[in-house]
From TrEMBL:
Natural source organism: Planctomyces bekefii
Peptidase M3A/M3B catalytic domain: residues covered: 144-371
Name used for this protein in its record: Oligopeptidase A M3
Any GO BP annotation: proteolysis
Superkingdom to which the source organism belongs: Bacteria
Pfam families: Peptidase_M3 (PF01432), TOP_N (PF19310)
Molecular function, one GO term: metal ion binding
Amino acid sequence: VLSQIVELRLQLRQSEPLYRRLLRLREHRDIAAAEARRRIVERMIQSAEQSGIGLQGDQRARFNEIQQQLSQLATDFSNHVLDATKAWSLNLTDAESVRGFPESLRRLTAAAWSRAAENSGGTAATAEQGPWRITLDQPCFGPLMEHSRDRNLRETVYRAYVTRASAGALDNGPLIERILQLRREQSRLLGYDCYADLSLSQKMAGDVAAVQQMFDRLLQASFDRAKKELEELSSTAAEQGQDGPLAHWDIAFWAERLREHRFSFTDEQLRPYFSLDRVLDGLFGLCERLFGIRVQRAADAVSVWDADVRFYEVMNDAGTRIAGFFLDPYSRPANKRPGAWMNDCIGRSVTVRGTRLPVAHLICNSTPPRRREARADDLPRGGNAVS
């Protein structure tokens, strides 16, 4: 299916009649005088040109072949990371090993043990008595690095996390090398010196020099402050008994201790105020105040891929539906890649048959609730909220 999707996209973007029509459309007075419309047309022209519309014969055939390979390599890369994440786990049976774990993390890791035990005919765990199963999924990894008082455990989990998909059948190293080779070849077919030039031609920065200048400015503005903050963390760690310099698996832990000391609160104390429904009410209320739209849960049944997925309708100030989106809020390690992202499902279009409304996906990676209801556990982690 993936190859067919790629082929269809290439056929559309390499359509000579469509490309010629876009070039004429760009010069039309209604388009030339409207900045937003002109921008849309220019981006469509650029998309066609960067999809090989200007290539002929063997060059176009090679471009299309590369595009197919890159799509498959990207899919394989993501699948390797997902499979490597699922393949690793660590079982803890000693209560001392989970010292410092907040209640939500104990529940999460006990539930992970119980799921594994159910599949193997074992005994279920409890948050209080264990056993606890550590995984590399972000809802487990992030809180563990912040709260586990077992430095050796933090090191073990950190090293496992940063070396995922780097050995054996799931090794992404060869895939990365091949992706870089193909990107370079494809970029040069389109007349660019390297892939960075091709990628940045579609972005606000514009070119590699602008990106480097931005990094230089950030370095100048942040280096001294970052160095001072690291020294503060090192002092805090030394005062509380840690020997030796800070390692990568210490940073999040001591940053959390310093924050708790300075501001006298923890994530666990905040959770009751940030249940999923309360967060959504605040978010949708903000959208209404800023943009004059109303977001509401769809009254009619909509087919979804998981029981926790919701579908929302976006209404204008006249009460007319103008868009919709799926919200998939929780982590599902068995079949959902980590992270948070958004994408379009159906694009808006206007034809002689009428207007097709847009639909999007909004995917998050929050800790699942204990039951199929919104609870205080739903507080999104800092790196996993989609804004």
